[in-house]
Amino acid sequence: MFTVLIRTAILYFLVIISMRLMGKKQIGELQPFELAITIMISELASFPMQDTRIPIIHGVIAIITLLLIQTILSVFELKSEKIRLLLNGKPSILINNGKIDIKELRRQQFNINDLMEELRLQGYFNLDDIHFAILETSGQLSIIPKTNLAPATKGDLKVPFKQDTIPVTLILDGSINHDNLKILNKDENWLNEKLKRFNIDSPKEVFIALIDSQGSFYYQKKV
Q1: pTM recorded for the entire structure
Q2: Where's the YetF C-terminal domain (predicted)?
């Protein structure tokens, strides 16, 4: 009995340390590969707890191996957009410019009742109030409402407004996203000119640069 208690305590603290090292995310916000590793770690910890014939070192080595894999993949994700897309996929637009994308709903196996429930949970009860609804890679639904119907009620106040749109990432950790530049009908020369206005000589100096929901250029340099 004492041996079981010791083994359980060791594995418990090892799992807690592993979860802390993986970062601060709720279960619903984990990416697919992170969720898979989390489930596998819990399973690997349970086997040595239940069966004292299994050497505890086997569970420890397996858990540490998964932690190393998760850490390495996270670093690769940060450095490469292609690897990030391969591991996590990309967000899906379920409502585009106020219209439901039926094909995308079917592709994501997301029925209309699920969509309406998610909208209600975020405080939106009418489809006509939604400009964009984006299914993130974590499974969360992001909502961009029609600006004139947003809680600020700019439409009621007759205040001039500009419709929010989807932010477009241009640079991430020094790497230019050429696909997003094409979406904006811009090229690398345009981007370099933008950076020069802020005394930035190279995209390699930039951690993130994007066009925000209001069409403004936002950037942050590497530390």
Answers
A1: 0.55
A2: 79-210
